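Subject: two folds for Thursday's group meeting

Dear M.,

Sorry for the delay on this. The cluster queue was jammed most of the week, so I only got both jobs back this morning. I'm pasting them in the order they finished. Each block is the input sequence followed by the predicted structure tokens. Could you check whether the formatting survives your parser before we put anything on slides? The first protein is the one we discussed after the seminar.
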Amino acid sequence: MSPSQRTAIELYRDLLRLVNHVAPGASPKSLALRTMIRGEFEKSRGLSPDDPTDQPKIEAMKASAVRALSNYMLYEGAMRDKHAGGKLGAAADKYHEKSVQGLQGSKEGEGDGEGSK
């Protein structure tokens, strides 16, 4: 189902279900995730699906919510595949290592500017 076919309430419920899966119970992590999700949806409360100027904003927000769900599902699949000795998990590890190295390299270059005297 594409983002435009899902209602905002369906996406909201899906995200809250995801929180139950990621951080069950009333842990600090689950409370923080629920608060963040609720806050993001509260920001868009004033948007109207009947207003043509709000349509692109609503679609962009829905797409972001679907992307978050998809990214998590991909991540979970990669981690399960990794434990089974699959290629997806190995590729995810390799990508993560490159990302961390890139971040470390960019932090090292930050102190070279004139503002670091």
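Second protein, same layout:
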Amino acid sequence: MTFCGYLPYSGPPMVVEHEISLKFTSSPSPSYSEAYDNIRTPRVPASGIPLEMVLTILEAAYFDDRGGPDIHLLSKCTLVCKAWSLHAQKLLFRRVCLRSHSAFASFAHTVNRSSPRGRILGDAVIQMRAVLDYNQPGCLNQSSLAVAVANCPNLYELDLAQYGCVAPGKDVVGSPAQERMRRPAPSFDEHSLALLKNNQSVLQLLEVWPSLRSLSITGASPVLSPGVTYPPFPGALEELRLNCQREPAKEFIGWLLHRSAEEKSLRVIDLERQPSPELLDFLVEKHGETLHSLAIPSFAMHEHAHAAMRCRSLLELRTESSWSSPVICRQMPETIQHLAFGLDLDTLLNPIIDLVKTRDDLQAVTVNLWRDGHRHPQFASLQMACAYRGVDLRLTRDVRRMRLLVRGDPVVPPTYPRTQTLDSMQPAVCSVFVA
């Protein structure tokens, strides 16, 4: 018998002791750094990265996640080298915000047109936000605003917030905010108006330039003094956005849009507060024939829905409410390109799904999910219909994000939904300021 079946077995094995010592040493292989150095890597040319490529990268990274300019990134880019500095500064100066006199002083020194760099940076300003709040120490005043505007000949958009004030010593610390908001703001003096009128830019102050195209009014509703005859506003608006504490009177709207109705120029109406059926009917009667975009908080009432149905050239319909009259989707024109609405468990999705399936020009659907909107039993059907038709379905859970997605730049686009890009306002700026 053998131990494994084929080895001879010769009794118990003998135990032999051995002394073993081990010594571990690394093999003489090349180090990681040496191996990495042997890999051929691309080299930056001696002249640096082509400036055209740098500009393309900076423009692509201009907007941050909130839709505003990435100030931190662009500020760092201005410090990289002299070749980058001026171009990054021009991007930084596309949008400026003036809230105090100290901010104005720094801005005015930078865009002083007596120096070549000042003229370049002043020409780069396209959008300006200014806050005139005389209740704050060191506030921006009217003449400073006029000087700032005069130094920016290519200014396309002016967002102006003006707060009322009381006589010195009459202010009450801690007074209710609503009472402060109702205070009348001081009138512009003749010197400030003269400075403003010397600048042939657009979208500035109402009644200063007739070339105004897009207008947004927030806060207190403008009123026409009774017993005074006003000549109609000479501008032909293309876009009107209202967010007033009280609904503007039809007399003011008629005065503001008189020439717009004559020239059939109005394309966009955005009412951030629910209008009365009378006001919406008045606007649609005068401008519904050529209206491309209509936005109100809710189309739940039949009067609002029927007013929208009379706009047969609509390219975009927007609402933030989760409930709309089902008839409005069934009667949408074939030209509709963008639909935006809110969604919760009670939303009627069948009419919207049918619209997606039957409108060949539809490009995008923007949905704000209220509460448990994503649990809607027909939400998956909406997703499938959009995917099958090649419609871009954009979902948000924040109404502020939804507004950012759908509003875009203050330029009436040829197609919808609107976008926010660096190039969107260039054709309009060139056509206005070169001519």
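Two things I noticed about the second structure. The longest helix spans residues 82-92. The chain has a mean pLDDT of 79.

Cheers,
T.
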